[in-house]
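Async update (no meeting this week)

Hi team, since we skipped the sync, here's where things stand on the single-chain job. The sequence we agreed to prioritize is pasted below, unchanged from the tracker. I ran it this morning and attached the output directly underneath so nobody has to dig for it. Comments welcome in thread, and please keep replies under the output.
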Amino acid sequence: AAPPAPIPVIAGLQPQDRGLSARLLAADDLPADLHPSPLQAEGRLVWMQPGQSLRHHWPGLVIHGRFDGTLAYLVFDDAVNRFRLTVDGARETALILTRPGRAVIELAGLAPGPHDITLEKLNESAAPAGFGGIWAKAAAPAAPADRRPLIEFIGDSETVGYGNTAPGRDCTAEAVFLATDSTAAFPARVAAGLGGQARVIAQSGIGIVRNHEGLSPGITMTDLYPLDEPKAAALPALPEPPAQLVVLALGSNDFSTPLDKGESWDGTPDLEADAAAGLAELARAALQRNPGAELLLLAFAEHGDSLMEAHRQAMAHIKPEAPQVRLVTLPALDRTACQAHPSVGDHARIAEILLATIAELPPQWRQ
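Output:
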């Protein structure tokens, strides 16, 4: 069989009546006499130059920029990610950028005047990457400060949106990469439903105290949550805006595979108790970073009674000191996406359940 065709760096509709075009330039071909456009960003990231350039690794990154004129240049140092690029909110002319590398994307053919650009990272990053900003002949005035409510999501592959657009469960690693769309996952859907923004701190395979199949013991979400990148050598995250609501969706990996000999627990009850204590510890850490926030524990009940028991015990640990914490239990899902992960339809259902729960919260949670 012939090898699969390479994925183009730039793909998408470019209707001629709008005149929009895009081309890939070498990093050294960025024209002179340009000005950086003011940026705003959603997600956990590191600003290299505040409001201008950044480094990122966690999923769910969304970048907003403004410029004035008919041309704009986007600077990448990124061989691992896939983005959706929209100009002035026109999804029908959205471009998909795949692993641009160290390069510049030139946007041309735009109407004179101010324009808004949105860049959404779709996949889960295999490594840190850089975005060097949006450059144009004239930068438009910065957008007003983002006052939308902030919802923080802490989770694993089910939170990332792992392979969620795939037509079936059998996926290669490349198929997972191409089928993952974090903008169709439940965090983005919940944020959109609330008129808010999402900060997603999630990694595939990660657990509360035990990762998928017991891999990488000693490095769990409790260790990674405070970090600017999801790896043990990363630095503590810089101060972030506090979220008004936190959704903690972990435990699936702790209990989805049986314990092996040599793991740290004497049996399932021991793992349940340890996971409950770890979940309570992580909940406390989230509330400390986001003082005054509402907190929802999201449990994927189909992973078994042990997962639910750990959540019930965690609630008993944390409820006396944080009475605002609530447990949300999900029903069985179709799980027709890659490796039996939630599909786009499943993510829509999860979002509906969360939004119904959030509607019952005191209205002042948004403040």
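Quick observations from my side:
Residues 268-289 form the longest helix (22 residues).
The helical segments are 157-160, 173-179, 186-193, 221-224, 252-255, 268-289, 305-318, 344-358.
Reply here if anything looks off.
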